[in-house]
Amino acid sequence: MQQNDLTDAQKKAFEQNEADFRRLDDHVRDVQETARARLTNTGWPDSGDTRRCFSCPCPDLIVNAQGKCKRSGCGHPLTDHDLPT
User: Fold this and answer.
1) Are 39 and 54 in contact (CB under 8 A)?
2) Which of these, 14, 31, 52, 62, could form a disulfide with 47 (CB 3.0-4.6 Å)?
């Protein structure tokens, strides 16, 4: 289906979905900033160029097909890691 073939209701649904996902992005970014500050305040070293996990001591994200870290002992989702914002 082409974008110009959408009904008004479908267009509105897509617009609302996009707005919801942008709010979700903002919320995830806020949670990550809080997590980063919390670890920094405890003396945990900055991640530098790595994508450390905020939920465990995993040093760097290795993504599997399910969008989770495949490092042994981690397994947390992509959003639990220190990704560029």
Assistant:
1) yes
2) 52
